[in-house]
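Issue: ligand-bound run for fe (ii) ion - logging full I/O for the record.

Environment: standard queue, default settings, no custom constraints.

Inputs:
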Amino acid sequence: MRLHRISAHINYIGVNDRTTERFETLWPLPHGVSYNSYLVTGSDKTAIIDGVEVSHALQQIDAIKSVLGDRNPDYLIINHMEPDHSGAIRILRQAFPELTIVGNVQTLAMVKGFYGVADNFLTVKDGDTLSLGDVTLRFALTPMVHWPETMMTYFEEEKTLLSGDAFGCFGALNGAVVDKDMDTTPYFPEMIRYYSNIVGKYGQFVQRAMAKLKDITVETICSTHGPVWQAELSRVIDLYDRLSRYEPLDRGVTIVYGSMYGNTERMVEATADALVEAGVRNISVHNAAKSDLSYILADLFTHAGVIFASPTYSDSVFPPVAAALDAAVLRGLKNREVAVIGEFTWAPMAAKKIGAAIEASEMNLISDPITAKHAPDADILDKCRALATALAEKIKA
Ligand SMILES: Cc1cc2nc3c(=O)[nH]c(=O)nc-3n(C[C@H](O)[C@H](O)[C@H](O)COP(=O)(O)O)c2cc1C
Ligand SMILES: [Fe+2]
Ligand SMILES: [Fe+2]
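Outputs:
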């Protein structure tokens, strides 16, 4: 059982999931994921903040009992209703029938709709407080970080923000729970992947939430996934701030390509060589038919430059390249300099369609796409190199 004392009033009662292959059945979990839950114990009342995924319900109940002994938890505060945090609600209610569920008006509708639970519900509004005796919890509604009902809970006396999915990351907790007790290095790439995959579309809402929190002092962040942040708090806030402003994290380039017979790939290799010659150091090359979309998105959110390269396939973009392009556009990716390369045999549709999609998006197409018919000749490869050099200049500027 995972049980860690975070402070005089907060115990960690979350769980690790090292079994699920893909989060939301989509996003790979090579290092697992944690569903964090916290038990806040006040002098009069106690509150569970955020739940766990349903198959881990009994583990959480054991943890609650071992902290509270004969005492029952009074409240279950739901910051976020996605089932990775709410799936165990019915089981918790069976274990603790007196449990009052706390959420906003949207949470209430979802708890009812998903789990058929509607009684003993305390509806809170933005700015409301709940006293547990010597503990004051204040609620801040932060819609669309990452569902409409999302809120955060601020524990005033301990300056602790229970932030829901915000500031979370993939990666199970390998023993330690608080950042100062572990090497956090592996969690940062997992934070970029988590953000770009799950939260990426909602940058403006994350920004809104961060503006709202600007005036409160935060010394600890307890999110629903990954380490509790104390020592590296400012690094984590800064990373979420930059990601949600769609600010590139470096001056690198992500190349996303597809190639069935190697023609497009030859053009890609020429651009990668030229990028290096032009001084670019962080280059991620993804064969979209093989790389998982999850990692492509993480790199798209990291680097300032992008090259999409695709053969024409059934009058359109090669499907895995189209999927990556769609995913970037869907997330509203901006502040990116983009170059496009296409390949065809009878109708140059790939370059045309990618170019049009970039122009309609908030990314910047640096020049007309380069298109090769049949195998790329020396002239086309030179054009690819020149395009890469122009892209390198753009992202340096
Ligand atoms: C299944 C399939 C569908 C294709 N559809 C088109 C097409 O609609 N228009 C076109 O000009 N070329 C089409 N092509 C030809 C490819 O664009 C051409 O073979 C190209 O050189 C492949 O690039 P690659 O070597 O990078 O895979 C198609 C090829 C395949 C195998
Ligand atoms: Fe979520
Ligand atoms: Fe979550």
